[in-house]
Amino acid sequence: MPDNAVPVLELRGVGKTFGGARALTDVDFTLAAGEVHAVVGLNGAGKSTLVETMCGALVPDGGTVHIDGRHTALTPRRAHAAGVRIVHQRRSLVPGLTIAENLLLGRLPTRFGVVDWRRAHRTAADALADLGIEIATDRTAAGLAPAERTLVEIAREAHLGGRVLVLDEPTASLGAADAARVHRLVRALRSRGTGVVYISHDLDEILGLADRITVLRDGRRIVTVAAADVDLPALVRAMVGDRLTHEADTRDPRPDPTRTHDAQDSDVGGSGGRARMAGEPVLELRGLSAGRLRGFDLKVHSGEITAVLGPIGDGQSELFPLLSGLRRAGAGQIRVDGRDVPSGDVGAALAAGLRCVTGDRLAHGLVPGLTVDENLDLVRRGLRRPWLVRWRRMRERGRAARDRYGVTAVHANPPVAALSGGNQQKTLLAAWLGTDMTACLLEEPTGGVDVAAKADIHRIVGGLAASGAAVLLASGDVDEVVGLADRVVVVRAGRTVADRPIDQVTRDELVALTAGGRAT
Ligand SMILES: Nc1ncnc2c1ncn2[C@@H]1O[C@H](COP(=O)(O)OP(=O)(O)OP(=O)(O)O)[C@@H](O)[C@H]1O
Questions:
Q1: Which residue in 73, 249, 276, 439 is deepest, having the highest Cβ count within 10 Å?
Q2: Rg from Cα positions in the chain
Q3: ipTM over 0.90
Q4: pTM of the shown model
Q5: Is 388 contained in some domain?
Q6: Which residues form a coiled coil (predicted)?
Q7: Within 13 A of 289's CA, how many CA atoms are on the CB side?
């Protein structure tokens, strides 16, 4: 930002306390028009609290907010009127409405008192085309792929007058090709003079996209630097400070033999603590059809991590409802240890030792109003004796699981709703992976988690496989698959297009295969 330019948005000495615990302390932040300013930090560092303050959703208890140089007591309405808009990870398009209706909601053009649809579609199409987005405006939001939804949502906020767009992990659940579309849109916005505050845990993405980067740690601003003046290791060091006890290499797939799944958990459900020889087939899917999946076959062996990779919504997202028993298959069989598991039966899936960890933690994974320890206990108790609450053991186990998965919060054992997204994800994994299992399905297990936690989760998953579990990983993240899996199955439009040992395929081939290329 030129020294004399007035920032479009400025925070001075902002602080925020939740129930006596400090989430933000004395944070300064500036954003210039036409700048992409990224905010990074470990889970719980204060990123969401900071951006909620920028949007008037949280009132800071110290410091001031300035828009175009003027001090403003920000409320959501004032922020909106000033053109400060946030695009959350949870998409807010109305599913049953068309793109044109969503873009112009509340402002549809009328002629003689009736909606002028031709003009509406033209206006919406022009708004999208201005930003380089090609999506037909008569499609409904429900039919959009996740990346298209993100693009339309960002375009809508820009079209409705957004001068400062706060993008909260817009690419978190997107593959590389889809993320690149979002990056193009962000660059288009920047060149039009829009200021963008960008939150992401993907530091490579940040380094390639941002102009400046602010690092938060424990609610404090550690540094603000030009992206061109910093590299990945320096950024990681600033984020973790002296907290890092091991190398934060997110691609280290080596299992840590000291951290295999809890020995103390072997009294729980499932089909017994087993340590198999590698090579034994454990989870078998035969001719499974449901939603977009068509006659899907897969064998996952004991001690093996098999990844199902593909664009989100292209078939691999059917696996969670099917394997967890939430949904009945139209055709085909699920077999665990050579025995059929009736589809559409949650109890049968659990009894067979199948553990399915959802990628949508708040919809299917956690009870937001209960504490972390209560959530951890629910899964364990539900598997065995739902009526018996043993409070002391619950607290002890809860503390151990929170420590092991690095669930950090300003309160010791808060309700899950008060946790940051990454800490919610760690709680979810601790709840399901802490129970004895034969096979597990992990849907996007590191979605929203920070670099250090990602490395920990990879070690834990490696440890599960090392102890004999068959691990199925459903992911859109090519790097995660390359770093973690032994085998990869690429699924497109519900069908397998490639099935390879991971050492017989390159990262670039996988990117091409998921984006539509052919297996060679
Ligand atoms: N409503 C709330 N009540 C109590 N504590 C809260 C509340 N909102 C946030 N916190 C706490 O404030 C701290 C900062 O959380 P915040 O969500 O801002 O972190 P974050 O950097 O966005 O993390 P993540 O990367 O995991 O999303 C955390 O310790 C969190 O538990």
A1: 439
A2: 24
A3: yes
A4: 0.75
A5: no
A6: none
A7: 6
